[in-house]
Design goal:
The chain has 288 residues and is of the alpha/beta class. It is built from 12 helices and 9 strands. The chain has 2 domains: 4-118 and 187-287, Malonyl-Coenzyme A Acyl Carrier Protein, domain 2, CATH 3.40.366.10; 122-178, Alpha-Beta Plaits, CATH 3.30.70. The strands form 2 sheets. A 5-stranded parallel sheet has the order 7-2-1-8-9, sandwiched between helices. Strands 4-5-3-6 form a 4-stranded antiparallel sheet. The longest helix has 21 residues, at 54-74.
Length: 288
């Protein structure tokens, strides 16, 4: 059997029309989502402006990714390892059986509310840079951190607007783009939101994972429920260590990576980090 990893994308991978093909095959789960959220995921997925708002993006991605994972499993497919990028980690935990669909959606709903309310801070994506120079600049600049370490040549920095601007100005890169987000996600500036979220997380029971999970803040494979919850507590303020997750895949004997969800962001990142590793995308039912 081919050792397979399922990976789940995060915010930024959403696409208008995603999930439409699930309407007739996931009626019950979509109804549960509507009851929890108070709005229809499939309706929101038809409107770009609303879908791109953090408050809606995160629940929509979680629902679509989880339902696609359900369809894969209904066809007899199973992962040997799972990982998710930022919000995608919740879908990965669901796929690993750590919590049920409704419990995960309650968490994602609250996470989205707290993150959408963040009003201070900035984020920027940098591509094509000298990593040593970037790391030195970040270490010498108060108020900025490496938020998403996506691969050797693509990262996201997060922090105070002044600190983010200073790094963008001083580090030569092929491209530097300020992101249109409400706050400094995956940085210490999210500490207040993270503390409030932790009270919600504490009430949700976690089960030991059926397959190992590689978390954003700690890429080592883990199945223990307590450890996985502790890692998730740290996620909102911690860095997304996706480059390390990618490098760990072949080390874990993974022979195929399946990106479950809209777009090809994660397979694109993995392709540049682990050349030759077979990749597959499942963004709708027809691709299963």
């Amino acid at each position: 059997m081919t050792k397979t990893a399922w990976v789940f994308p995060g915010q930024g991978s959403q696409a208008v029309g995603m999930g439409a093909d699930l309407a007739d095959v996931c009626v019950q789960q979509l109804a549960i989502a509507t009851d929890i959220l108070g709005w229809s995921v499939l309706d929101v997925c038809q409107h770009q402006e609303k879908l791109d708002s953090t408050l809606y993006t995160q629940p929509c991605l979680y629902v679509v990714e989880c339902l696609l994972a359900d369809q894969l499993m209904a066809q007899g497919q199973q992962p040997d390892l799972v990982a998710g990028h930022s919000l995608g980690e919740y879908s990965a935990l669901y796929a690993a059986g750590v919590f049920d669909f409704a419990a995960g959606l309650h968490l994602v709903k609250r996470r989205a509310e707290l993150m959408s309310q963040a009003s201070s801070g900035a984020m920027a994506a940098l591509m094509g840079f000298d990593r040593a120079a970037l790391e030195t600049k970040i270490s010498q600049t108060a108020g900025v951190v490496l938020a998403n370490d996506n691969n050797d040549s693509q990262v996201v920095i997060s922090g105070t607007p002044a600190a983010v601007a200073a790094v963008m100005t001083d580090i030569k890169s092929k491209r530097a783009v300020k992101l249109n987000v409400s706050g400094a996600f995956h940085s210490p500036l999210m500490a207040e939101a993270a503390a409030e979220f932790e009270t919600v997380l504490a009430d949700v029971p976690f089960q030991s994972a059926k397959v190992a999970v590689m978390s954003n803040v700690d890429p080592s494979p883990q199945t223990d429920a307590t450890a996985l919850k502790e890692r998730l507590k740290q996620q909102m303020t911690g860095s997304v260590r996706w480059r390390e997750i990618s490098l760990a895949l072949p080390e874990q004997g993974v022979e195929l990576v399946v990106e479950v969800g809209p777009g090809k962001v994660l397979t694109g990142l993995i392709k540049r980090t682990c050349k030759g590793l077979p990749l597959k995308n499942v963004s709708d039912v027809d691709m299963i």
